[in-house]
Amino acid sequence: MNLTVAEIAALTGGRAEGGDGRTVTGVGPAERAGPHDLAFLDSADKTALLASCRAAAVLLPEAAAVPAAGGPGPARIYVKDPRYAFALVLRELEKETAPPRRSGTHPSAVVAASASVAPDAWIGPCCVVEDGAVVGPRASLDAGCFVGRGASIGEEARLHPGVSVLARCSVGKRSVLHSGTVIGSDGYGYVRSGGRHEKVPQLGVVEIGDDVEIGANCAIDRAALDRTVIGDGTKLDNLVHIAHNVRIGKNCLILAQAGIAGSTEIGDNVVIAGQSGLSDHIKVGANSVVMGRTGVIADLAEGSVVLGPLGRPRREFMRIEAALSRLPEIYAEFKRLRKSRGDEKKNP
Questions:
Q1: DSSP-based three-state secondary structure for 94
Q2: 3 state DSSP class of 250
Q3: Rounded Cα distance, 267 and 71, in Å
Q4: What pLDDT shows up at residue 10?
């Protein structure tokens, strides 16, 4: 990367002050950035760090009113959202550091004659593309990926090494699936008969929307009969499990080790934090937040914020926790009152 302060300001829609002739060649955190790096501060409260910052330039929120850079101090670039602006610069850096995009089919790959692979797609080493599968324009399958019968991979989608997209499942445009993830594993469906658990065939599919990112080692189960759906723009962290028939809306965030049981419906813009679990056949309204290590066992209205093993409203949960913290004190007072009344029965 080799960008001037003015070019970074143009790229991020910001306003630059000072450092007109400086060139930025790298990035770093404000505390450790070097004299040719770009850094960012995400709040006006952190501007004291500028005194010791050695960066060539710093992205700052528009509300951070500090004097224009003079002398060796970093140039200031004022933007609406420093984190987002920094991400835009990182994208430019990524373009330079990423290996050049490839096309074609590696000699070790196995591609069925009936599969349809765009000429500018890349099928990497030891990949398998089965009968009737479709791999769209500029899609990329890294080493060891598997695309099952009748599955489809959308335009510019990327499958990192070792991803499996099983039969008849689909991945949308520009979606990214990280290593070890399985799309279309069988849903967990059994019926008890004669003292045994008999498997219920899982005949549905998984549909992954456009611009979805799914972390490493996730499992998205196919529906029993219909579809498991991940909406456009949704992002899953590593180690997330989505059970059969689940439907997740657009632009949701689901963090590590979360699990969603079968046939649950998640609205748009929902955040589900790490190690949370959602029961089956419930509905979570749009714009809700399920905080970390929360269990949800009933429907949530739109805009809910819940916490705790029973998914209580956050403020209610915090009040309960505050009361529980006083339980030893309350119990001691209870015993004192019983004694003062002459109650000689043994306390429970």
A1: helix
A2: coil
A3: 52
A4: 94
Rounded Cα distance between 231 and 208, Å, is: 7
For 20-51, how does the pLDDT look when each residue is reduced to its tens digit (9 = 90+)?
678 999 999 999 999 999 999 998 888 888 88
- Token pair 């797609």: residue: 121
Angle in degrees, 0-180, between the axes of helices 314-325 and 327-340, rounded to the nearest 10? 50
The answer, as to whether pTM is greater than 0.90, is no
- Residue-wise pLDDT for 50-79, tens only, equals 889 999 999 999 988 666 545 568 999 999
Residue 320 exposure: Cα atoms within 13 Å on the Cβ side: 11
**Residues sharing a CB contact under 8 Å with residue 246, sequence separation 6 or more, in sequence order:** 221, 228, 229, 260, 261, 262, 263, 264, 265, 266
Return d(Cα 217, Cα 256) in angstroms, integer: 10
The reported pLDDT for the residue numbered 343 is: 63
Q: How many C-beta neighbours within 10 Å does residue 167 have?
A: 16
Which residue is associated with the tokens 């965030």? Answer: 253
pLDDT of 179: 98
How many helices (H) and strands (E) would you count in the chain?
Answer: 4, 40
Q: Is 244 a catalytic residue?
A: yes
pLDDT of residue 70: 53
Domains in the chain: ranges and CATH: 3-97 (3.40.1390.10), 104-315 (2.160.10.10)
DSSP readout, 24-79? E-EE--TTT--TTEEEE-SSGGGGGGGGT---SEEEEETT---PPP-TTSPEEEEE
Among candidate residues 160, 178, 241, 244, the one labeled active-site is: 244
Intervals of the chain under pLDDT 70: 20, 65-72, 343-348
Estimate to the nearest angstrom the gap between the alpha carbon of 312 and the chain centroid: 24
Contact assessment for residue 209 and residue 227, using Cβ atoms and an 8 Å cutoff? no
**225 CB contacts (<8 Å, ≥6 apart)?**
203, 204
Beta strands 170-171 and 128-129: pairing type? unpaired
